[in-house]
Amino acid sequence: MTMRGAFLRLLMQEDLNFLLTNRIPRRLATRIVGRIAAIEHPLVARPAVAAWRFFSDVDLSDAETTRFASLRDGFVRRLRPGARVFDADPAVIASPCDAIVGAHGRIEGDRVYQVKGFPYRLGDLIPDAALVERYRDGSFVTLRLTAAMYHRFHAPADLTVEGVTYLSGDCWNVNPIALKRVERLFCRNERAVIETRLDSTSMPMLLVPVAAILVASIRLGFMDTERSLREQGSARVPCTARAAKGDEMGWFEHGSTIIVFVPRGVTLDPALAEGAPIRAGMPLARVSGAAGDAD
What we know:
The chain has about 300 residues and is of the alpha+beta class. About 25% of the residues lie in helices and about 30% in strands. It is built from nine helices and 16 strands.
């Protein structure tokens, strides 16, 4: 085993990993990393980028460039044209991002699972009772972005964004180790509730990006990207922003999680498997009655 492999294996020991990534001043650590990540001076940026590439084993083979002015530039890198192809079938809801598939399946009334045995209430994640009812008994998919992954997320279908609500919160790590130990973790963390409606069927779909430790901000391209989402406050912001399938919607300034919620009548892709990687554009679910649906 290489020195790097041995070190990473040590870091992933559950008790030590939880201690190092959660039992620290999480907000302070996140602010510090955010400031360091934005520094473009070579004496800071070069070792920061080198450490990121070493510890996360990032693959930059499909990146638009491999030369970054800062660590943040590496996190929010763009890909070469054509690096991600979105399924053209209008009945298919595609994955909005590169991710590891987490908990997914049916919503039991308003009960959702962050991992097996750790449920949370949809109403604790989403502050709108009408939205909760809209997705009751629907389906969900949890998509976890690691530090090494492409951090931008895209429209999973042709859609219109109807509203965005920012919710302030903590910044617990969202890795499987923390999800098994911290109840209602997603409901505790900073997050955004993005309300969308599909152009093909007028079906609603909810995207909930959840921040985590070291995530300096969530940016939404259809809003004011000069400010992070948290700077815009917690009020619901109505929108009429259109996005074609595959259009960029926003990005994290570090890895995190997006939870996708769909109502009854939508079938999750049978190939989804917890712990398996998925790329932006790959099938996530299928909408019955959409144009192009063979059913």
